[in-house]
Write a structure and sequence with these properties.
Largest sheet: 7 strands, antiparallel
Structural class: alpha+beta
Shape: globular
CATH class: Mainly Beta
Radius of gyration: 17 Å
Number of domains: 1
Strand order of the largest sheet: 2-1-5-6-7-4-3
Number of strands: 7
Order of helices and strands: HEEEEHEEHHEH
Strand content: 25-35%
Length: 163
């Protein structure tokens, strides 16, 4: 059964969740069609998800760009809010591709602020951007462009039951 549009998040709620939640989960198609599901830190800029990662998810996306990402918050069912994105992702293979991306710098600044102090060190007043760059065989920026976004806000369930 599809999710009621009456439960959907509005644009400001989507932006707030995507810019303040720390973790997303990205599902890629692994070797032998097995699903590889990985929690990651991420940025949101220009309607795209930015992840700097390495390893199997990068290898998977080079081979098969189709992926899904979910960002959710809260634990109890009546309080769940989520954004699920489906689409294709590409890998920024080098510094030139990073420089050419129209939204990467915005995502780097946002991630610097969002994860300020997140590695166990004290937060600083003006955090630097996330300046990670292509390294080794698989350390890369992943850019996911959604072609489908489904959201829900279970806080709205009570109002639905009354109508």
């Amino acid at each position: 059964m599809p999710i009621s549009k009456k439960l959907a998040l509005d644009e400001s709620q989507i932006t707030e969740i995507m810019t303040s939640s720390w973790n997303c989960r990205i599902a890629t198609i692994g070797p032998g069609t097995k699903i590889n599901l990985t929690p990651m830190w991420f940025g949101w800029a220009g309607g795209r998800v930015y992840i700097h990662g390495r390893g199997q998810k990068v290898v998977n996306l080079r081979r098969a760009p189709s992926c899904s990402i979910v960002v959710d918050r809260n634990e109890r069912f009546p309080e769940l809010q989520a954004v699920t994105l489906q689409g294709n992702a590409y890998v920024l293979e080098d510094a030139a591709a990073e420089a050419a991306d129209p939204h990467l710098q915005e995502a780097r600044i946002q991630m610097g602020r969002k994860y300020n102090g997140g590695h166990g060190s004290p937060a600083v007043a003006n955090p630097p951007p996330n300046n990670a760059t292509a390294r080794g065989d698989h350390g890369r920026w992943i850019v996911m462009i959604p072609d489908s976004i489904v959201t829900w806000d279970n806080f709205k369930l009570a109002a639905l039951k009354k109508s």
